[in-house]
Design goal:
The chain is of the alpha+beta class and 206 residues long. 18% of the residues lie in helices and 44% in strands. Strands 1, 2, 3, 4, 5, 6, 7, 8, 9, 10, 11, 12 and 13 form a 13-stranded mixed β-sheet that branches. The longest helix is centred in the N-terminal third of the chain and has 17 residues, at 21-37. It is globular. The N and C termini lie far apart (46 Å).
Amino acid sequence: MKTKNIIACLFLLFATQAVSAQNNAETLIRLIVDQMKSHKNIEMAFNYQINAEGQTSDAQQGKAWLQGEAYKVEMVEQQMISDGETIWTYLIEDEEVMVSNAEDGADNTPLKLLTSLDQSYVATLAGIDEKGNATIELANPKGQYRRVTLRANVGKFAIQGLDVYMEDGTKLILTINEMKFDQNLDEKFFTFDTKAHPNVDVIDMR
């Protein structure tokens, strides 16, 4: 089905009362995830804030890349890098990098969450405005992230932001400013370069 036809059908789904809010949301989530998976890789520029115990931190900038099972997240205080087998968590101020196996269960970040929304979460449409900007509530009581509020544009199948609710009650607020696709990334891009950080203490937790 051509993109224009898909968009037209999706707007029809949202407009008709015969289809439930849950079905509408699940349709949109599947289309968003399929669109993301259709690319070789994704690059995102975002702002993030952390809300803990009723206090919200100042907004900080970050960048992230996702390619298959590999990912890289750059934030002010830390970097998280994975080639799909190994995870490096680099604490910049402490000059420490912790190394762990992806299969140990630590390979679960808000970035990876984006490509599993259609598998793990029950989605319900909370609202959609006249510009096609939708708010979707996603629930996964048994997961690390119990609840996610997703903001997305229906016409572009583009994610605009996420509010991710952790097990401990902390909320991560992500606003996506820009997304790029199919970048030419070096094969070592998704690994931590110890030679470039000679003073970093490597803590191998494998």
